[in-house]
Specification:
161 residues; mainly beta; three-stranded antiparallel beta sheet; elongated
């Protein structure tokens, strides 16, 4: 674990990245040496067991947020699920062999966003495409047949007084 700062995107250059550590030094790291990068709310350095506090690694039920529900197996055998955006950035990242960004299953945890380099993924599966429910189209109004029966145009001399 190396705590530090990275930009939100565009930090991979020549299969490596430059991490700005907590002392202000730039630490070069090869992408092959990274399992995952966690974007966290705060650095919890006192917690040596699980500083990123990623409490759940899979979804308990169908996610409510839009995205691609992915399940990946790391080269170490661990499983992680997350939501990837449904835009072209996913394809660009995977084609360029860089990696992909995910929203973790528990968004209330300390970890807000995850970057997984392609080199640490052994298997990647698409579980589902989560979309928002479409708005119902208004149904065309059906004529009220009973009103039509009683609103018949009668000749003026046939109307009751």
């Amino acid at each position: 674990m190396l705590p530090g700062y990275l930009p939100l995107s565009g930090f991979v250059r020549n299969r490596a990245l430059d991490l700005l550590d907590l002392t202000g030094r730039v630490v070069p790291i090869l992408l092959n040496d990274i399992k995952l990068i966690s974007y966290v709310r705060d650095f919890n350095l006192a917690d040596t067991v699980n500083p990123e506090r990623l409490t759940r690694r899979t979804f308990l039920a169908r996610p409510r947020t839009e995205g691609l529900w992915l399940r990946m197996t790391f080269t170490s055998g661990e499983i992680l699920e997350g939501l990837a955006p449904t835009d072209i950035s996913l394809l660009d990242d995977l084609v360029n062999d860089a990696g992909l960004f995910l929203t973790p299953p528990d968004i209330r945890s300390n970890t807000q966003r995850i970057y997984v380099p392609r080199t640490s993924i052994a298997d990647l599966a698409l579980i589902a495409v989560i979309t928002s429910p479409s708005k119902k189209k208004p149904t065309p109004s059906t004529p009220n047949l009973q009103e039509d029966l009683f609103n018949v145009d009668l000749p003026p001399n046939a109307r009751p007084n």
